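Progress note, sequence design subtask.
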């Protein structure tokens, strides 16, 4: 997985769907909801349509899902 932590580029605004996403505002990356790592759109593989968040890795996605379930958000 490519994670770009350098500056530059414009963040995209996405609407996360089940299995896909819709670009609401163009850009070249999103930020991981947990780590704030810059994720290029071409490398985005993990997100939650329920929480409307992107994640940098599957481990981060699972941890966030478990956290949200425990807090009653899912």
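Output:
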């Amino acid at each position: 997985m490519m994670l770009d932590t350098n500056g530059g580029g414009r963040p995209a605004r996405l609407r996360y769907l089940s299995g896909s996403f819709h670009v609401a505002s163009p850009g070249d990356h999103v930020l991981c909801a947990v780590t704030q790592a810059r994720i290029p759109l071409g490398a985005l593989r993990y997100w939650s349509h329920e929480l409307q968040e992107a994640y940098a890795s599957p481990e981060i996605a699972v941890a966030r899902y478990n956290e949200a379930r425990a807090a009653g958000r899912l």
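The first strand starts at residue 13 and ends at 16. Work on this subtask will continue into the next period as scheduled.
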